[in-house]
Amino acid sequence: MFHSGWWSYLSYDESKPKPVLDRQLLRRVFAYGKPHWRAVAIVMVTIVAISLLDLVPPLLYRELIDHVLPNRDGARLNLLALAMLGIPVLSGLISVVQRNYSARAGEGIIYDLRRQMYGHLQRMSLRFFTNTKAGEIISRFNNDVVGAQNAITGTIPGIVTNVVTLGSTLAVMLTIEWRLALLAVAVFPLFILPAKRVARTLRAIRRTAMEQNAEMSNIVNETLTINGALLVKTFGSQRREAARFDSANAAVRDIGIRRARVGQLFFMGMSIAGTLGTALIYWVGGHLVLDGAISIGTIVAFAAYLMRLYGPISALTNVQVEFAQSMVSFERVFEYLDKPVEIADRPSAQPFTHVQGHIRFEDVSFQYTPMPGQTAPAAGEAEEEIDSAGTPAGPAPTRRWALQDVSFEILPGELVALVGPSGAGKTTVTYLLPRLYDPTEGRITLDGRDLRDGAQESLAAQIGMVTQETYLFHDTILANLRYARPDATQEEIEQACRAANIHAMIMALPEGYDTVVGERGYRLSGGEKQRLAIARVILKDPRILVLDEATSHLDSQNEALIQSALEPLFAGRTSLVIAHRLSTILAADKILVLEAGRLVEQGTHAELIAQGGLYAQLYATQFSRQLPHPDSPSDTLPEPAPALTS
């Protein structure tokens, strides 16, 4: 206890501001303990019980020396021996109970925190995820929640234990012999005063050690990854990099040795201070024994109590810093829990049922305003449009609004194609329809109802999305397909895969539908993943389809298979498609042409060609390349043209 208390103090980084305990934060943390109050109460009772039991052995030593041995009392000696054996056993059993209930309370609180944070983040809009690093979210669930768990199961019980131990031990020592108790307390400054100066040295060493460890890790990361190893080998720099690593490794070794040496000298000083206290007790106590003021057993008991006194006082010296540091993890978790839910169901929200698929955008304007704490783009600054994978797709035209005053109508069952140059706002339109974002101005209606008046879960059930970048879980093909409809039968799944032209490929695999696709589906080709995505949407059977059909990265065969899979998918559904194929554009009931966030043209292919505007230019420069060559057979699909980036 003595060493661990001081080591936590020395591990604190003085370069950081001294943490301050926030009462509001403490109230919030302790509120999470209310559902587990029985377990917490049992832990507190066991801490007191163990502390009181640990006070008994020194009293037994005094009884043995002062009475049992001088009186040659064999029966009493047997009882003392049993007590000396029984007390540690009983204390150990109570410790087991304490640990059990401490774990119950701590794990229960962490379970509540994780569940609440996961549920809260599930309700966050897409804006949150495009502005937050995935590693940071994982860190909150792992490092910070584990840190909070350590505070509940380690730091807080440790503080309570030290307080109870210190108070009870000092009380017993004062009761037994107040003069020796005051003498023991007089040694406290020898523990506290030197610590400040030595701690500064150790903290500086610790900071240097962290920097040098980071440098060594950086060398490993740069030179032992595939790209780094390739660079080193092609330039023949193995010896140079080995020397660089050896230098960094030696620096880590040397600072570690220095830290161990200084730390050991410090702890030796603390041991000397403890030894000095013990020596004083024996010296002064010995004179009191010679004068007949106290017994020999009293001195022995006092010596036994000393470490129970000095250990807790050293640990509690820095209790504020230690406790405040342990609260940082809770604070970081609460930062996420306190983030407002941008897109939430209104209290009066009603589910969308029996949807016909009549969609209207009414004077819709939208800007990708940042999350709180980030700087909003000023007028004239470039703003990024978000691509179909949910990540920034590159700078859009220099403007504040991603969409501005966009109005159009899609009748039930219509196929509408979105076209336009890169950054025109096409992906933004497809993200507003399923309420991944809400319009900044204007409104979007479905069958005459504002999307914001409906329940989000029911809206998601009506819309199927096939994005340009298909996301698959590291699971089987069957599990990824059932994500659309968990109750789907094997026959229904196979029927959907046949419609998507993927069933034969799946059956050709050794494990068929039980084949694990790997991380993000890396074991499948781009065309296979996209056809799986189409099968998943077919299985969902939505009333509205939102599709980014980019296939510029696919070969002609895969593109033909996907195109034939899409034809039945469009049938009978309201479809909004970011079109990259001329065949889709020609089949569309309406074409919406976007430029710089504005709807500049709309109509059929023939009407727009006749207007001679932006669409006619796009057709002449890009879409017309997809026309079959006059000499090629009419049933042969041409090579796909470079896709229009959305």
Can you put this structure into words, describing what you see?
The structure is a single chain. This protein is an alpha/beta fold and 646 residues long. It folds into 3 domains: 17-176, ABC transporter transmembrane region fold, CATH 1.20.1560.10; 178-293; 359-626, P-loop containing nucleotide triphosphate hydrolases (Rossmann fold, 3-Layer(aba) Sandwich). Helices cover 59% and strands 10% of the residues. It has helices at residues 2-10, 23-31, 37-53, 56-71, 74-122, 126-130, 134-176, 178-186, 188-223, 226-234, 238-290, 296-316, 319-337, 426-432, 456-462, 477-482, 490-499, 503-508, 526-540, 556-570, 582-587, 605-611, 614-621; strands at 359-366, 382-386, 392-398, 403-410, 415-419, 441-446, 449-450, 463-466, 544-548, 574-578, 590-595, 598-603. The strands form 3 sheets. It has a 6-stranded mixed sheet with strand order 8-9-10-5-11-12, with helices on both faces. Strand 2 (382-386) and strand 3 (392-398) form a beta hairpin. Helix 7 packs antiparallel against helix 12 (296-316). Residues 1-19, 372-398 and 629-646 have low confidence and may be disordered.
